[in-house]
Amino acid sequence: MADDGMLLNFSLPESGILNKPKFKGGTWKDRLTAKKAAANWHTKATQRLTGEVVAPKTSTKATEVNLTELGPRIQSTPQNLDYGGDRPAKKPRVSGDFQSKTADETEAPAFRPQSNSNVSKQSGEKQATSKGGKQIISSLFSYNPTSTTKPEAKSRDEDEAPLEPSNAPLTSELDTFTSLGISTTLATHLLKKMDLKAPTAIQKAAVSQLLKDDSDAYIQAETGSGKTLAYLLPIVQRLMELSANMKKRKVDDAVHRDSGLFAIILAPTRELSKQIAQVLGNLLRCAHWLVATTVIGGEKKKSEKARLRKGINILVATPGRLADHLEHTKALDVSNVRWLVLDEGDRLMELGFEEEIQKIVGNLNNRMKAKKDAASAIPGLPEKRTTVLCSATMKMDVERLGQISLKDAVHIRPDPTDIGQDAVEEKDGQEFFAPAQLKQSFAVVAPKLRLVSLISFLKRAFARKGSVMKAIVFISCADSVDFHFDILAGNLEGEEEKKAIEASEGPKTSDDEQSKKALKSKKPFSQSDPTKLTVTHTASLILSPKTHTVTTYRLHGSLPQALRTSTLAHFTKNKDPAVLLATDVASRGLDLPNVDLVVEFDPAFAREDHLHRIGRTARAGRDGRACIFLMPGCEEGYVDVLKSDRKDAEMGVSIGRQDADEILKKGLVTSGVMKDRLEYMEKATDLQLTIERWALASPARLEAARRAFQSHVRAYATHVAAERSYFNIKQLHLGHLAKAFALRERPSGMKVPGLRTGAGREDKRPAKIRGQGGEGKGASTRKKVELDLPEGADVEEAAKMRKAVRAREKFMRHAGLASEFNLG
Ligand SMILES: Nc1ncnc2c1ncn2[C@@H]1O[C@H](COP(=O)(O)OP(=O)(O)OP(=O)(O)O)[C@@H](O)[C@H]1O
Q: Could you tell me if 413 and 441 lie in one domain?
C-alpha cells in the first residue's frame, strides 16, 4: 500500500494470534524492542482471552522533551494518564533508525483488528522506514488513553424535542413594542420592515428602563437574546422624540446630520461593529434624517475623517480607532454625546482597552462640560450622559470598567417570569447560562484521533441536506485554522485527494465521480501548496456528500480586513451548507444566520468565551447544537463546567456524550452497514495516512503543519488558571497530538521558522506601537491586561492568574490574534 511502508495487518497470522512472531531485520536493539513489545502484547492478549484481570498501572515514566519557546518543560508523555493502562515507559521508535524492511519483515502489530477491539487497542506502536528523514508512524488505535467518564443514564437524546427557548421573543399579547413606549412609527417599521413582532425579555426590560430615565445601565442577558436592539431602540426612539420636539418648538427643522453626534457605540471587533451598524442602519430607515457611520480601522483614515466631517448623529466604533480620531480629527465633536454604549464590555476590558476607554470617557466629559459652560446645548437634549454596558457574561473586569464609566448603574436583566424560569439564585452576582433550548454534548477523543474524528463528525453532520445548514468550528489559533482549512478544502492533491475521499466514503459509482468532478471544477486555488491567505472559502471535497456541496470557510485575525469582511458576508449569504473554521474572532456578538451547529474543536480559553462561542447558535428562540471535543483524562473534568452552563442542570438534563469510535463509525461508514466491526478503523487509518502523506509531500505543507502544531500547543498553555486543572499542559501527549497535525516527527526536534506574527495585518508595526491607536508615536502606554480575580482569591492564585493572562496576551500577539481584536 503505502510508500511509507506502513503495514496494516488485518489478517490473523496463520500460526494463530497467540503464537509469538519471529523477528528479523533491523539492528539488535530494534529487534529486542519489537520482541518486548510483542511479548507484552502477547501476554495481555492471553490474559484477556483467558479472562485474567490485568491491573492497570496508573503512571508512566515520562520522557521529557523541550519544545522550544514553550517556556515550561513539557513532557511528551503526560503524567498520571492511563495510556493503554499497562505500558512501561515508552521510548519513541524512529523509522530512520531501522534498516529498510519489507512488509513481511515488520513484526510489531500496529493495527490489528481482532474480535476484541480492546486487544487491538493494546497492540504496540509501529514504525516504518521512509526515504530520508526520521519518522514515527504510530497506529491511530493503539496506546490511546482511556476515558474517565461514562455516558450518563439520563442524557438528553439528539432527537428529543428541544426545551422551551429562553431567548425568544415574548408571546403574550400584552408585550408589544408600543406598550414599552416605542412610537407607532418605529413599532410599525419593526414589524413591517424588520419582521419583529414582539420584544424579547431583555428588550422589554431595557427599553422601558432606558426610556424612563437617564441612569447608567448594565444590560445582561443570554447570547442571542436581542441585546443589540435592547440598547439601540431606546436611543433611536429618544432621538426621534428630540427631533419631533425641535420641530414643534421651531428650533430647527428637525435633527439632521449637522445637529451633532448624540450616541457612540463601542465594540471590541470590527466584525461586530459592522454588524451593529447594519442593525442600526435598518432601524434608521424609518428616520432617514438620522445619520450613522462606523470608524473601525481596516480602511483609510482619510475616508473615515471625510465621513465624520460630513456630520453624523450616531457612531459605531472600535475603541482604538475612536481614541485616535478624538485626538487627531478636529471635525469629530463629541460635546453632544448623551449615550455611550460599551457592547461586549467584558471583552473590551479583557483585551486591554481600558486605557482607550478611559481616554474616550475623559474626552467626552471634558467636551460636554465645555459645551454646557458655553450654554449652547440643544434644547430637549438630556442633561447627563447615559453609559450602557452590555454583555452576556459578567466578570470582575466589567465591574471595574463599570467603576470608571458607570455611575449608580441599574442592572437590567430579563424578568425570570418572562423567560419561563424561576428567579436565578445568584452566586456573587455572577450567574450566566447557555440558552435553554441549546443541545450540548461533548466528544471524548484521544489526541491521535482528533483530526480524523473532526472530519468524521462534520461529514456526519452534513450528510443529509438540511440537517445542518451552517456550522462553526472554533480552533484556538490562526495557524491551526489554516492547516485544517487546507485539509477540509480538499487540497489533498490528485490521487491522494481521491484516496482520502474514497477512504472516507467508500468506492464511487460513475455518477459519484461525475459529481466530484463538478465539485473539483469549483476549486479556485492551486493544488500544490497550502492555500494562500487570499482564499478563504471553497467547496470541501472531503465533507461534501454525493447529493450536495459543502463549502468550507476560514476566518482569523491574520487575514486582511477586507477579506475578513467579504468572507463573513459570503458565509452569511450562502444558502447552501457551509462550515466556518474560525478563531475566537467569531465568538463574540456575531449573529450569523442559520448556524445550527457549533463545534469547539479546541476548548475556549475561559468559560465566558465558551458561552459566547456556543451562543452563535440557538439564537432568538431557534434550535441549535453545540459539541466540544475533550481528550480522555483531565479534560473530561470540563464536563462540570458544561453542566454549569445549564439552568436546567438540577432537572436532570445532562450533557450528551459521544466517543471517537462512535463518531468514526457514523461519519466514515456511510453505507450504514459495516462489513465488519472494525471497518471504521480501517477507513480512519487510511484517511489519516493519506493526510500524512499529503503533508509530507510538500515542504510548505509540512511547515504549515508544524506551525499549526506549535501554535496550538502554545495556545493550550494559555487557558485561564482557574481551568488549568482541566487543560493541563503537562498532561498533553505531544507525540500523539502531533499525529493530529499529520506529523510523523518528534515534537522535540521540530523547528518552525517564521511562526506567525500577524501576517496579513495592514498595520505591520509592533503591537506596542499599534497600541497607540493607528498613527501612534513611541511606545504604548497600555496597561497590563487586568484580571478576572474572584473575590477572596489568594495572592498565589492571583499571581498565577496574572501569569496566565500575560501568557495569553503574549500568545495572542505571537499568533496574530492581537489584531483580531484591533489591539491597535
Ligand atoms: N424582538 C425580536 N424578535 C425576533 N427576533 C429578534 C428580536 N430582537 C432581536 N432579534 C434577533 O435575534 C438575533 C440576536 O440578536 P442580537 O445579536 O442582538 O443578540 P445578542 O443578545 O446581542 O447576542 P450576543 O450576546 O451573542 O451578542 C438577531 O438575529 C436579531 O435579529
A: no
Q: Which domain holds residue 312?
A: 200-419
Nearest CA to ligand 1 atom 1: 199
The count of other CB atoms within 10 Å of the CB of residue 676 is 11
Distance, CA of 93 to CA of 3 (rounded, Å): 19
For residue range 260-313, list pLDDT tens digits in order. 999 999 998 888 999 999 999 999 999 999 999 999 987 788 889 999 999 999
Closest CA to 138 of 108, 100, 117: 108
Please name the residues in contact with 410: beta carbons below 8 A apart, sequence gap of 6 or more: 209, 215, 216, 217, 218
One domain, residues 673 and 734 = yes
Cβ-contact 701, 483 below 8 angstroms? no
> Would you say residue 751 lies in a domain?
no
Q: What's the CATH number where 329 sits?
A: 3.40.50.300
Same domain, 475 and 376: no
pLDDT at 644 over 50: yes
pLDDT of amino acid 805: 53
Shared domain for 394 and 437, answered yes or no, is no
Query: Where is the domain boundary, 419, 439, 468?
Result: 419
Specify if 707 maps to a domain: yes
What's the rounded Cα separation, in Å, for the pair 38 and 61? 20
Ligand 1 geometric centre to CA of 167 (Å): 8
What is the value of ipTM here, to two decimals?
0.99
Residue 324 counted as domain residue:
yes
The reply to whether 231 and 335 lie within a common domain is yes
**Last residue of one domain, picked from the residues 392, 419, 446:** 419
Of 143, 75, 151, 77, the residue nearest 108 (C-alpha): 143
pLDDT at residue number 570: 96
Measure 780 CA to ligand 1 centroid, in angstroms: 36
Alpha helices per DSSP H over 67-163 = 117-122
Q: List pLDDT tens digits, range 396-446.
A: 455 666 556 677 788 898 988 877 665 545 544 457 889 999 999 999 999
267 and 366 belong to one structural domain: yes
Q: Locate 500 and state its grid cell.
A: 482520502
What is the pLDDT at residue 125?
Answer: 37
Confidence at residue 618, expressed as pLDDT on a 0 to 100 scale: 95
Q: What is the pLDDT of residue 532?
A: 72
Residue 138 within a domain: no
**0.80 exceeded by pTM:** no
Cell of 514: 461525475
- Chain CA centroid to CA 150, Å: 26
Report the nearest atom of ligand 1 relative to the CA of 194: 31
Ligand 1 centroid to 311 CA: how many Å? 29
C-alpha–C-alpha distance, residues 642 and 634, integer Å: 14
Backbone angles phi, psi at 735, to 5 degrees: -60, -45
Residue identified by cell 452534513 is: 462
**pLDDT digits 0-9 by tens, 303-329:** 899 999 999 999 999 999 999 999 999
Q: Does 615 share its domain with 722?
A: yes
Pair 231, 267: CB distance under 8 Å: no
Q: Which residues contact residue 308 at a Cβ distance below 8 angstroms, ignoring those fewer than 6 apart? A: 293, 295, 325, 329, 331, 332
Identify which of 179, 226, 171 has the alpha carbon closest to the alpha carbon of residue 203. Answer: 226
Residue from 175, 177, 178, 196 to probe ligand 1 pocket by mutation (most atoms less than 8 Å from CB):
196
User: Structurally, how many domains does the chain consist of?
Assistant: 2
Residue ranges around ligand 1 (CB below 6 Å): 169, 196, 199-200, 203, 221, 223-229, 392, 589, 591, 615, 619-620
Q: Tell whether 384 and 441 lie within a shared domain.
A: no
